[in-house]
Amino acid sequence: MLGDIRNVAVIGAGPAGIATAKQLLAENHFETIDVFEQQASTGGVWNYNSFAPSQDLSVPQTNPHQPLEEPIWECPGPAEQVQPIPLFVTPMYDRLESNIPNFLMKHSDDSSLEDQPLFAGHEGVLEYLNRYAEGVRHLVKFKSQVYDVRLEKDNGKDQWLVCTRDLVSSRVTEKIYDAVVVASGHHYVPTVPDIPGIQKWNEAYPGTITHSKYYRTPDAFKDKKVLVVGNSASGIDIATQISTVSALPLLNSKRSEAPEYQRTAPWKREMPEIAEFLPPSASFPRAVRFTNNEIECSIEAVVFCTGYYYSFPFLSSLCPPVIVTGERVESIYNHLFSIPHPTLAFIGLPYKIVPFRTYEGQAAVVARVWSGRLSLPSHREMRAWEAQRIREKGAGKKFHELTNLEDFRYHNEMVDWALKARPGEGDESTVPPRWSKEDEVVRKNIPAIKRAFAEMGQERFAVGSLEDLGMKL
Question: I want to staple 183 with a disulfide (CB 3.0 to 4.6 A). Which of 16, 223, 314, 403 is the partner?
Fold first, then answer.
């Protein structure tokens, strides 16, 4: 039994945390909803810092168990007149544009993102998210870093001691909650694989190897021979940007096929996976050997666009642990509820998704389960779901991956589940709609839409819809 849940803590005021706060508030059930955000504003990962972040990167980086990130302090005026602002390194870079059309990306209850270009820039998305948060901004405690969340027992009922630190005053606060939502994202600990020879190569050529988290502009790569590792959306975009200033062709090592329109890009040469970073020598300076045994020498920069580990250092006291390998969250039901402790929920674990609407659906379920209007399956059924997911996807990083419209099916399942809620004081109008067949057609054609948009050049910034692009699906 979950017990009577009245006081809820939400960790993170990015897109997932704000969607969660809105759904909790709409239930008209919870007495306390505290949202903790370590940054000075909403927006989460969409907050862009123009400074070149110092690179605190281990090579290789294979350990998800990292300490909490320390802020970088910015003082926007005389220190005696204004409070300093804590900044955190996000993977946002200068010319990033979304890879989802605005009308799919937007939240279901706010269409103003459609005022932006069809594939909005990060500035437009952040502006949209800040506006979207207005209705719950009063719930957010900014510049507050959650450093520990501990499980407590009260007459057999799970409760949570949430420990926070005010980053400006260093004041520590501890408070008991009935339930906790983790909505802090998973773009914190970079993944740099342990490829043979990489550590010694990095020592021989310090500063040559970096990760996309630290990329801001292509300027540092001017006239250099560059190897980009990975061909996800960010990998392709960063490689495209770097190619405008680097030596050509740019090398792109990838494990899977790139989108069709990218395979014949004249500015790059596709390479298989890296087999080995070769030891420094006169014969093979700055050399890398690929799995086809081809060797490339004189490489001056390597950018790993290889993703991130799941990492929640504030949950390190939990037993069994929620993070082991960092490739997934352990003991999880439906990418959402902790199985041993269902008053702990995670919003936003799935990836390769259309995110904002997915967060809404997940949050609608969590709010209704914790208000008592929906029931969870039995412990045995939840364990069976996890076991089946492992059989289908494995226990590694594909566990939370939703591809081939699986994210749409997942969202529709969340919506259907939320709509089964028993009558109560909650506002049912906040349940997001299901994805439609028309939406599915757009989802399948996003690569072609993105290509047509990019081919518009500077004129693309005036393109706000498929009609503007001259496309009809």
Answer: 16
Supply 196's token pair: 């043979």
CA-CA distance, 177 to 194, in Å (whole number)?
A: 40
pLDDT digits (tens, 9 = 90+) for 276-319: 999 999 899 999 999 999 999 999 999 999 999 999 999 999 99
Distance, in Å, from the CA atom of 409 to the CA atom of 404, rounded to the nearest integer, reads: 10
Q: How far apart are CA 52 and CA 46, in angstroms?
A: 16
Please choose, from the candidates 226, 300, 237, 307, the residue with its C-alpha nearest in 3D space to the C-alpha of residue 269. 226
| Closest by CA position to 353, among listed 287, 288, 406 | 406
Q: How far apart are CA 189 and CA 311, in angstroms?
A: 7
Residues in Cβ contact with 460 at an 8 Å cutoff, skipping those fewer than 6 apart: 117, 118, 119, 453, 454
Residue 25 CA to residue 367 CA, distance in Å, equals 9
Tell me the three state secondary structure of residue 330. Answer: coil
The H or E element spanning position 412 is helix 406-418
Give the pLDDT confidence score for residue 78 in this predicted structure: 62
pLDDT recorded at residue 83: 80
Show the tokens assigned to 174: 């501890």
| Beta pairing, strands 288-290 & 295-296 | antiparallel
Q: Which two tokens stand for residue 151?
A: 């499980």
What residues of the chain score a pLDDT lower than 50?
A: none
| Distance between CA atoms of residues 347 and 123, nearest Å | 24
Percent above pLDDT 90 for the chain:
89
The pLDDT value given to residue 53 = 67
304 token code pair: 């790993």
Amino acid at 470: G
Which residues fall within 8 angstroms of residue 152, CB to CB, at 6 or more apart?
Answer: 158, 159, 160, 161, 176
Q: How far apart are CA 166 and CA 173, in angstroms?
A: 8
Q: What is the pTM for the complete model shown? A: 0.96
Q: Judge residue 4's burial from the number of C-beta atoms within 10 Å of its C-beta, 0-12 exposed, 13-18 middle, 19 or more buried.
A: exposed
Which pLDDT belongs to residue 263? Answer: 56
CB 335 within 8 A of CB 240: no
pLDDT in tens, 156-171: 899 999 999 999 999 9
Residue 381 DSSP code: H
Output phi, psi for 230, to 5 deg. Answer: 115, 145
Distance of CA 465 to the CA centre of its chain: 25
Closest CA to 39 of 77, 67, 68, 12: 12
